[in-house]
Specification:
- This protein has helices spanning 16-26, 63-80, 154-157; strands at residues 2-3, 7-10, 32-34, 40-42, 45-47, 53-60, 87-88, 91-96, 101-105, 126-135, 142-144, 147-150, 163-166, 177-181, 186-188, 191-194, 196-206.
- The chain is built from three helices and 17 strands.
- The longest helix has 18 residues, at 63-80.
- The protein is of the alpha+beta class.
């Protein structure tokens, strides 16, 4: 489904067997509690809180996963946004248990990466342009945990619905890819029951011109 300028869902983009292999791949890496991806900046201090994000995260790289997802992302990007993309960040395997959530946020920073933030030159002066989420849990595995995206162009497009809730069985099925520009504000609502598993990644490009 394409909602103008907002997101694209690709059902059954990745097979269930491949999704299982992705989960197996994460077992070679350590996970850790992820309280907040975006820190609060208060003066010269930083604070993290589970009020923003409560999940377990495993960060890793894997060439075959990049290739599998990258081919689909490249096709969707060319058709719908045609952003210049040059690099992709680490894969992140996320597990949201009971009450796990991620409050409203955007993935794109106001400023591009610097060499001090990441010594890899492929990051320098680049920003997140596309966010990608792969469903690794079936819709029957959990309650709550909806991915919601805020429609930034609702008023200008004459659209009444300002928040799109991706909670259909298709949206939440194993192997569904959800792709959206990294400047779109979004959240994952609290898990009421079960376990929500997903793989997320971000594609980088030079600053917009």
């Amino acid at each position: 489904m394409l909602y103008p300028y907002l997101y694209v869902t690709v059902p059954e983009a990745i097979t269930k067997l491949t999704c299982q292999k992705i989960i197996e791949q994460t077992k070679f890496h350590k996970d850790r509690e992820q309280e907040a991806q975006i820190d609060y900046h208060l003066g010269n201090t930083k604070q993290t809180t589970k009020k923003i994000r409560d999940a377990k995260r495993t960060s890793f790289t894997c060439d075959w996963i990049y290739r599998k997802i990258g081919n689909i992302v490249a096709e969707v990007n060319k058709k719908h946004w045609n952003f210049d993309l040059h690099w992709v960040e680490n894969l992140e395997y996320l597990k949201y248990g009971k009450d796990g959530h991620f409050d409203w946020h955007i993935d794109q920073s106001l400023h591009p990466y610097t060499i001090e933030q990441n010594p890899n030159p492929n990051f320098t002066n680049r920003i997140r342009k596309l966010s990608v989420s792969l469903q690794l849990s079936d819709h029957k595995d959990y309650e709550g945990g909806d991915l919601e995206l805020e429609q930034p162009f609702a008023k200008s497009l004459g659209i009444e619905k300002k928040v799109n809730i991706l909670n259909t069985a298709e949206d939440r099925s194993i192997g569904t890819l959800i792709i959206f520009p990294s400047f779109v504000r979004h959240r994952v609502t609290p898990i009421k029951k079960g376990l929500r598993q997903s793989l997320v990644l971000w594609y980088l490009g030079d600053r917009y011109r």
